Amino acid sequence: MPINLKRVKVLTKEEQKKGPVIYWMSREQRVNDNWALLYARELAQKHDSYPAVAFCLVPQFMGASGRQYRFLLQGLKEVEKNLQALKIPFFLLLGDPGKEIPHLLSEIRGAALVSDFSPLRLNREWKAALAAEMEIPFYEVDAHNIIPCWFASPKQEWAAYSFRPKVNRLLFEFLDEFPALQKSQERNSPTGKDAIENDWAAAKGCLNLDAYFDADAAPEAKWLGPGEAAAMKQLRHFLEHKLTGYERDRNDPNIDGQSGLSPYLHFGQISAQRIALEVLKGMKDAGAFLEELIVRKELSDNYCYYNQHYDDIRGYPAWAIKSLDEHEKDRREYLYTLPELEKARTHDDLWNAAMQEMLQTGKMHGYMRMYWAKKILEWTASPGAALRAAVYLNDRYELDGRDANGYAGIAWSLGGVHDRAWKERAIFGKVRYMNYKGAKSKFDVPSYINKWSLSQ
């Protein structure tokens, strides 16, 4: 069954000739349930050819640490193995995609290029530069969102309440089952060798990481394993043991009540559409989870796609910019430098515990992320400084950092994005406020502090 072409955007319109179709894998690092790979296969079959997959490893990517690169590389090794079973070539490229992708296309005489979708600036700049030079068809496929981002809404949505009806109208047009990815026919290797020899040691060696940061500050996240198989195992565990109590338990940092799927979604090791399909098979107590998985997550992509200031205070709504500007000179009782924040050295044991959770595990509880970000606004010299600090820390330490969800979440916390104006107060202006007392009313704060203070 052909895929819904509303998922596909044409970046360069050229005539497709005979030859392999290259899927440039980036955001969606999986073989199964991947619309971009399925479309590459579909294009190849129409011209009696075969698909191949390329991943371009950039030595330095938006502040990513060794923690994130380890997770990524282990997942890609599984991608290679799964593609080998399907007789689909996999190329691990090292360096600038603007150079490496065209070089590969020339080397194996690629007839078309398919990419997956990302709303982030750097990915879009890479694609725009390639499209400007491309002499073969070039397509972008949204394999991340259930409803293609550009189709869900033609504009930036103000909040979930404006976006939700659009999602509900379109959801079941796109929430279809994935067709099977068939094994490729036996063909001559595009490199002239019996097998493609990817150099994983060279991949690790090419990474440009801060030695101190990589070795000491971000230990490997051992609470979950990377890759498609591990992601599906985590999903099954969530469905069997946590989904029923999700709405009740999700906002208590002392309870392991969240899905644990966000790192897998970030690296594309599992499809949000697959998660939704599996959840809907049971449909018990699923409303709160599906709201976050579909409406909130896709709203984040909408924000970053239509607002290229998603990590800048210029991306905030006008009322928040005005209000924060009016209160920028308000007296701060506490002021902390970025190194002090990074080492969890503040007067607030709850904030320090949240930071330690992130430092040690690469995953801060969702409720604590809001508290954590809002306190950075309260303890830094300006809204701009707060945003820079929050983005830096989130992107460096969270496994799911450098993601639309993270940028939208920080913008909500610090700048009222997808929120409304609240009662005016010092420093925050009309941006929603959170405090220690409010946290104590929601969960056992001392227990959370005790758990993570052991790591300090």
- Secondary-structure element pattern, one letter each: EEHEHEHEHEHHHHHHHHHHHHHHHHH
CATH topology of the largest domain: Rossmann fold
Rg value: 22 Å
**Tally of distinct domains:** 3
Instruction: Quickly give the CATH architecture of the largest domain.
Output: 3-Layer(aba) Sandwich
CATH superfamily of the largest domain: HUPs
Low-confidence stretches: 211-216
Instruction: Report the mean per-residue pLDDT as an integer.
Output: 93
What summary fits the major beta sheet? 6 strands, mixed
**Widest beta sheet: strand line-up:** 1-6-5-2-3-4
By DSSP, the count of extended strands is 6
The total of helices stands at 21
Written overview of the protein:
With 456 residues, this protein is α/β, with parallel strands linked by helices. It has three domains: 1-143, Rossmann fold, CATH 3.40.50.620; 145-178 and 225-308, Alpha Horseshoe (Serine Threonine Protein Phosphatase 5, Tetratricopeptide repeat), CATH 1.25.40; 311-453, Orthogonal Bundle (DNA Cyclobutane Dipyrimidine Photolyase, subunit A, domain 3), CATH 1.10.579.10. It is 49% helix and 7% strand. It is built from 21 helices and six strands. The chain has helices at residues 35-46, 66-85, 97-108, 121-133, 149-152, 160-174, 200-205, 211-217, 228-241, 246-249, 262-266, 272-282, 287-306, 318-326, 338-342, 349-361, 366-379, 383-397, 404-415, 436-440, 445-453, and strands spanning 8-12, 21-25, 51-57, 90-94, 112-116, 138-141. Strands 1-6-5-2-3-4 form a six-stranded mixed sheet, sandwiched between helices. The longest helix is centred in the N-terminal third of the chain and has 20 residues, at 66-85. The protein is globular and about 70 Å long. The termini are far apart.
